UniProtKB/TrEMBL annotation:
Domain Subtilisin-like protease fibronectin type-III: 655-753
Domain Inhibitor I9 as annotated: residue spans: 34-121
Primary residence: secreted
Leader sequence residues: 1-28
Protein name, per record: Subtilisin-like protease SBT1.3
Native organism taxonomy: Eukaryota, Viridiplantae, Streptophyta, Embryophyta, Tracheophyta
Pfam family, one: Peptidase_S8
Keyword Transcription: no
Residue span, PA domain: 387-478
Protein's organism: Stylosanthes scabra
Sequence similarity: Belongs to the peptidase S8 family.
Length: 760
């Protein structure tokens, strides 16, 4: 077999965590370094019962005579520090240069790569977002000396305090403004709180009132997390640096949260039976009193009116207190208008992919290869060198739900699937649960196919048996192959971790979409951020099989929540790493729109210096509510505590000083001209001049007045208006941008123009 050049094959190396050992010695050829030895798995002699024994024997055969005869000889386990049997086949071993050269000539050795020294790698999202220090002495947006006093309240399933992500070594004392508590219960004591986990509370009274008493033998009636979701989210937001983090060998590197110096306050509001609004409301209320600076909420449900949405109501109060609220957009995509948490005072974050992937492959008996994704790491019950029978229990018809095709519990006949790779369609049951059903029925592997709902988005899961997820198009080809070939076969292989995936980012298919039918004038989601295949801390009470949406916030502590949101939105980008418009994983044929990605993909570094911000005061939000046809009683849920009343400062909902412009022409065709007003605050240089650029639309002409903004001091506010005049009413919404540019900053606001008949 031809050997693969080292510089090409190095991209397949999984263990980027290892460091080269550099010893200054007069006799360098005897200095042992770490080498990666790639082996031809299929070349294993029949005299060996397993690959590890063969790998060990091969390495041992190349050791120098001096090493073998030495009284302090390292045994083969000490020489071999890693073995690879799925994605990358071979070992990592400590060898001298002479031994490495000798080993390279051994039968079955494909290539040998000297270990390279890398800078610390995150499990990807902070680096992908540009949050790592650029060089020694430079700070990232969330460096430890910037966010030490920031406390992030996480409303979720609790926390697993033993995780290294919550180690408080080296942290300064808890900020004096913190008033929270560390509540105790089964599996959770006062000692589980520290300078990282500054508080932990539980909320269950609403749950028990609706469901009944919590079964304490099944779950912890304490802040301890038995689910994993809360631990994962908390670590993603503010986890401490953890070197050598990985998931069963995947994504090896240094894990850290977006703000590793920030503190975490865990508010457990979700239980086995769900999350109840009374508990959520109580938690948010307590969090504000405790002194959190940020609320991270990955919860939601069907959209209801502002006055009937407890999260919206509580978030309004938190915003008034200066708390920045970040909520997930939801996982109901790609259906239109599937958003949750759409209130304008909430930063609504959709999900996108990163430039990291966990590739896997399906090789069919007809020679065709299908690309997929997987985080499977377990017994090699499926050999990449052997073809296995395929079985698909669905039919040719599409659209109708087929329980057998979706591998639902109790639908698979062991006599049909035993010893075979089973094709399962996504839907109804969790992805990993389908693999469990296949395994229980005797299947040796699973190919999980996307449906029209999921499109081409690939989500890697930590399956219980060898399993690969593939896209909708390949899924159709695969099912056709099986239905037209009685002897259809396949095998599965797992290729580890790859970086630099192009194109990226891509809007996740599951990410909930706009428009925001509650208020079309408020564009939602606000932006997108990495939320696919995020690896972070997890509860040790449950196996690794879920996903979470990470949350973001900017650094300026004196800014209002609206100013922070504005900075994130106006600096977001809308092109991927191929410099083409962001794509939508649910439909690779077309780019995503602001209904999918909002203002764009988050760019935290640029958000540090946005130039201008669109600030919104609590009274402004209240005046927005006054345009929403709410009754006085309904308005009172927002204005009660501050004794607010309608100041009628907004001529229309579209005049809310939002960083995006969403214009709605009514069905009344006599209304052909509409004007919206905006005010920007200078947070850049004292003296600056901004010029406006605006997109050209088919259906309307656009005029901005004035076209130039001249600032003479920092924090100065200047206003402008945008007039839209209908030329030809369009049947579909139109999208564009308005950008204020001073040659240093580009302050971009997305524009959506909707003619209501286009939505009917």
């Amino acid at each position: 077999m031809a050997k693969t050049p080292m510089k090409i094959m190095s991209c397949f190396i999984l263990i980027t965590h290892l460091l080269s050992i550099t010893l200054f010695s007069a006799n360098a050829q005897f200095v042992k370094k770490t080498y990666l030895v790639q082996m031809d798995k299929a070349a294993m002699p029949k005299t060996f019962s397993n690959h590890l024994d063969w790998y060990s024997s091969t390495v041992n055969s190349a050791l120098s005579t001096t090493s073998l005869e030495s009284s302090d000889m390292e045994n083969e386990e000490e020489r071999i520090i890693y073995s690879y049997q799925n994605a990358f086949h071979g070992v990592a071993a400590k060898l001298s240069q002479e031994e490495a050269e000798r080993l390279e000539d051994q039968e079955g050795v494909v290539a040998i790569f000297p270990e390279r020294k890398y800078q610390l790698h995150t499990t990807r999202s902070p680096g992908f977002l540009g949050l790592e220090p650029l060089s020694k002495g430079t700070n990232s947006i969330f460096s430890e000396n910037l966010d030490n006093d920031v406390i992030v309240g996480v409303l979720d399933t609790g926390i697993w305090p033993e995780s290294e992500s919550f180690n408080d070594t080296g942290m300064k004392p808890v900020p004096s403004h913190w008033k929270g508590a560390c509540e105790i219960g089964r599996g959770f004591t006062k000692q589980h709180c520290n300078k990282k986990i500054v508080g932990a509370r539980v909320f269950y009274h609403g749950y028990e009132a609706a469901i009944g008493k919590i079964n304490e033998s099944r779950e912890y009636k304490s802040p301890r997390d038995q689910d994993g979701h809360g631990t994962h989210t908390a670590a993603t937001v503010a986890g401490s640096v953890v070197h050598g983090a990985n998931l069963l060998g995947y994504a090896y590197g240094t894990a850290r949260g977006m703000a590793p110096g920030a503190r975490v306050a865990a508010y457990k509001v979700c239980w086995i039976g769900g999350c109840f609004s009374s508990d959520i409301l109580s938690a948010m209320d307590k969090a504000v009193a405790d002194g959190v600076n940020v609320l991270s909420i990955s919860l939601g449900g069907a959209v209801s009116s502002y006055s009937h949405d407890s999260i919206s109501i509580a978030a309004f109060g938190a915003m008034e207190a200066g708390v920045f609220i970040s909520c997930s957009a939801g996982n109901a995509g790609p259906s239109p208008a599937s958003l949750a948490n759409v209130s304008p005072w909430i930063t609504t974050v959709g999900a996108s992919t990163m430039d990291r992937d966990f590739p896997a492959q399906v090789k069919l008996g007809n020679g065709k290869n299908l690309s997929g994704a997987s985080l499977y790491k377990g017994p090699s019950i499926v050999s990449a060198e052997k073809q296995y029978p395929l079985v698909y229990l669905g039919g040719n018809s599409s659209g109708a739900l087929n329980p057998k095709a979706m591998c639902l519990e109790g639908t698979l006949d062991p006599q049909v699937v035993k010893g075979k790779i089973v094709i399962c369609e996504r839907g109804i049951s969790p992805r990993v649960q389908k693999g469990h059903v296949v395994k229980d029925a005797g299947g040796v592997g699973m190919i999980l196919t996307n449906t029209e709902t999921n499109g081409e988005e690939l989500v890697a899961d930590c399956h219980l048996l060898p399993a690969v997820a593939i896209g909708e198009k390949d899924g159709k080809d695969l099912k056709n192959y099986v239905l037209t070939n009685k002897n259809a076969t396949a095998t599965l292989s797992f290729l580890g971790t790859r970086l630099g995936i192009r194109p990226s980012p891509v809007v996740a298919a599951f990410s909930s979409r706009g428009p925001n039918f509650l208020s079309l004038e408020v564009l939602k989601p606000d932006l997108v951020a990495p939320g696919v295949n995020i690896l972070a801390a997890w509860s040790e009470d449950v196996g690794p099989s879920g996903l979470a949406i990470d949350q973001r916030r900017a650094k300026h502590p004196q800014w209002s929540p609206a100013a922070i949101k504005s900075a994130l939105m106006t600096t977001a980008y809308v092109v991927d790493n191929t410099m083409k418009p962001l794509k939508d994983a649910s439909n690779a044929e077309k780019p995503s729109s602001p209904y999918d990605h909002g203002a764009g993909h988050i760019n935290p570094i640029k958000a540090l210096d946005p130039g201008l911000v669109y600030d919104i005061k609590p009274q402004d939000y209240f005046d927005f509510l006054c345009t929403q046809n709410l009754t006085p009683n309904q308005l009172s849920v927002f204005g009660k505590y501050a004794n607010r009343s309608c100041a009628h400062s907004l001529a229309s909902p579209g005049d809310l000083n939002y960083p995006a412009i969403s214009l709605v022409f009514s069905e009344n065709k006599s209304i052909s001209v509409m004007t919206v007003h905006r005010t920007v605050t200078n947070v850049g240089p004292d003296v600056s001049t901004y010029h406006v650029l605006v997109s050209v639309f088919k259906g309307a002409s656009v005029k901005v007045e004035p076209e130039t903004l001249n600032f003479t001091r920092k924090y100065q506010k200047l206003s402008y208006k945008v007039t839209f005049t209908t030329k030809t009413r369009q049947t579909q919404p139109e999208f564009g941008d308005l950008v204020w540019n001073d040659d240093v900053h580009s302050v971009r606001s997305p524009i959506v123009i909707t003619w209501l008949s286009s939505l009917v």
